[in-house]
Amino acid sequence: MCCHAALTPASAIALTLRAVGGLTTAQIAKAFLVPEATMAQRISRAKQQIKASGVPFVMPTPEEQLTRLRSVMRVLYLIFNEGYASSSGNEVHRTELSEEAIRLARIVHRDIPADPEVAGLLALMLLTDARRPARTTTDGALIPLAEQDRTLWDRARITEGVALLHDAMAAGRVGEYQIQAAIAAIHDQTPRADDTDWPQILALYGLLEQVTGNPIVTLNRAVAAAMANGPAAGLMLLNGVEQQLAGHYRMDAVRAHLLEMAGDTEAAVTHYRRAAARTTSLPEQRYLATQAARLRAQA
Fold first, then answer.
1. Domain 1-52 shares a fold with domain 215-293
2. CA 144, CA 150: separation in Å to the nearest integer?
3. Given the DSSP bridges, would you call strands 88-89 and 280-281 parallel, antiparallel or unpaired?
């Protein structure tokens, strides 16, 4: 393995996403929540640093191996996410990416079976991908989680994912992938959307927020808070990350959903339309525009 000590972890991950995942600079930038120009500069600087470093190819120390394992898992996680929910284009999924991420995660888990976060990452991928058959209509339209036909979910992947998660959490070293897998497992093991244990999901998102500090996690926590305690609780949480996610379509999409729950139709329409204008995924764009049109017709 090669050691590029001058590279930041984020730059190394971005380069690997370009090389292994074949992702565009725009897609990588979205994953890191930065402008495309910023990511292009980071990738360019990273390439220049590698070229100038002259660092030889050597086996890493145990400490370096742990750091690199975390970077590898991050790369696989981002590749899977891009495959499961494409950030741009006309397709909801890029199945070849998500399947390749799962294949590589299986290899890492096979080689490092004692690491609970590796198992947690594989569990998360399986539990999430299990829902893929129900995520779209026959003509490719997006179906939200609450409206999916759960009989179409892949029960074999759910069973495998839950077993992996159980073994990982028994190790007593819980990390972000295990927490996300636990949230996915609650959804996957709930027969009806109305029976979802939102208070437990809210608590898990709170823990995940503490572990990661990721504002996207706060968006998900806001939805869980709204489902558990009412839309006002969710809207309050959104205010805390509004500046960090200014201009991001997910902020507008979540706000629109919560405003609709609160009965503020006019504001919900505005934010659905704003989210539709900001996303580069055509299926999401169509879904959000449809939500706005539905509410406008009901007004």
1. no
2. 12
3. parallel
| Closest by CA position to 260, among listed 250, 270, 272, 268 | 268
The rounded distance, in Å, linking the Cα atoms of 173 and 175 is 7
Instruction: Answer for the pair 132, 84: CB distance below 8 angstroms, yes or no.
Output: yes
CB 15 within 8 Å of CB 47: yes
Q: What is the CA radius of gyration of the chain?
A: 20
Q: Domain coordinates of the chain in residue numbers?
A: 1-52, 63-196, 215-293
- Report residue 89's pLDDT band, with 50, 70 and 90 as the boundaries: confident
Give the whole-angstrom CA distance, residue 88 versus residue 27: 8
Strand partners, 57: 2
CATH class of 1-52: mainly alpha
Which residue shows structure tokens 């299986």? 106
CATH fold group of domain 215-293: 1.25.40
- Which of 96-105, 107-116, 183-192 is modeled with the greatest confidence? 183-192
Q: What is the pTM of this model?
A: 0.84
Q: Which helix (H) or strand (E) holds 150?
A: none
Kindly compute the dihedral angle of the four CA atoms of residues 275, 278, 284, 287, in this order, to the nearest 10 degrees.
40
Contact 98, 115 (CB under 8 A): no
Question: Which residues 6+ apart lie within 8 Å of 109 measured at CB?
Answer: 118, 119, 122, 164
